[in-house]
Amino acid sequence: MKSRGLAAITPNAPLAPFEFERRELGPDDVVLDIAFAGICHSDIHQVRQEWGPALFPMVPGHEIAGVVTAVGDSVTKFAVGDLIGVGVFIDSCRKCTSCVQGLQQYCVEGMTGTYNTLERDGTSVAYGGYADSFIINQDYAVHIPSNLPLAGVAPLLCAGITLYSPLRTWGAGPGMKIGVMGLGGLGHMGVKFAHAMGAEVTVFSHSPDKESDALEMGADHFVVTKDTSLLKPLHKTFDLILNTVSADLDINTYLDLLTLDGTLVVIGLPGKPYSVNVGSLLNGRRRIAGSMIGGIPEIQEMLDFCGKHSIVSDVEVISAGYVNTAYERTVASDVKYRFVIDASTF
Ligand code: NAP
Ligand code: ZN
Ligand code: ZN
């Protein structure tokens, strides 16, 4: 199946128009016309090989929202015309303890990513969502509620689920004090979800001009982190802190903000190891944890939650020709709050 989109042909190369073949429709596959594709900071990390050697040409994109245009003979989950979403993985082993629990992102054999990997046949390159069309096995796609604007839905497929999942895992709700570090694509979804779940939300940001936006999204407090002495009065007060920052930082400053048994969940992945002051962990039985996206059942649950609460991402819709500029602006923390590519411009 012919597809047209954008690719980095070599590491660090600017994204350029690219035509390529996807597999033909199989019995369990669904073809979709992509309407919008979000730009995740993980796309930038991978194009720039900040996580190690990558596979090129690379068509990035794992926040995909579109409309079903064809279904294979055995497909029961989708029909032509349905709204459909695809996220960060397109397959997994389906047999391991994680997969059978619907936690495909933690597949023991490793999930099959949407791009920058080979498909499970071990030979075809997986090309991502910066393109006009996509093909996906029905078990690895989700339904999009019809009451939400589709451009704002695309980022939910990664940014949304990546914050929804830890909030659920650590029981976000009324009476909980939650901190969100970094108000970017992921962070702003964390604010919206934590607020909708009834928690008291504080944003930690190095961008003072984002304060009014944060409060409008549902944050109760906004703390500028440039002067860390301002954090002192907040020591030992947070139950849960979600770190979405895409750059290196001193994590110990934030560990000290956790209350007894509090947890700091690492979500941002700058690519370099953190140095941890063990004393900060001991004092208060604090924990550091990680969390990676979410499985298919939880992605569907998150989208249904968004439909019910009218939650979408705040997006800046761009055309394909603007993507390289959007990368620079994202790295400079100048994104409000997710760039989404209009797929009709590929
Ligand atoms: P993003 O939109 O660029 O947001 C990152 C935010 O981090 C920025 O808006 C900024 O917020 C803050 N930040 C950036 N540079 C900083 C610096 N030098 N010092 C302090 N704060 C800084 O990125 P994103 O798409 O949300 O992704 C965030 C991270 O999560 C990336 O590393 C990405 O790869 C990772 N990620 C992880 C998962 C997972 O499953 N765990 C899934 C998707 C993405 P302020 O301006 O408010 O300070
Ligand atoms: Zn992502
Ligand atoms: Zn598995």
List the helices and strands and how they pair.
Elements: E1 2-7, E2 16-21, E3 29-38, H1 41-47, E4 64-71, E5 83-86, E6 89-91, H2 97-100, E7 112-113, E8 133-137, E9 142-143, H3 150-153, H4 159-169, E10 177-181, H5 185-196, E11 200-205, H6 211-217, E12 221-224, E13 238-243, H7 252-255, E14 258-266, H8 278-282, E15 287-290, H9 296-309, E16 315-318, H10 323-331, E17 338-342
Bound molecules: NADP nicotinamide-adenine-dinucleotide phosphate and zinc ion (ZN) (2 copies).
Q: What keywords describe this structure?
A:
346 residues; 2 domains; seven-stranded mixed β-sheet; 26% strand; alpha/beta; binds NADP nicotinamide-adenine-dinucleotide phosphate; 10 helices; six-stranded parallel β-sheet; single chain; binds zinc ion; Rossmann fold; 17 strands; Quinone Oxidoreductase, Chain A, domain 1
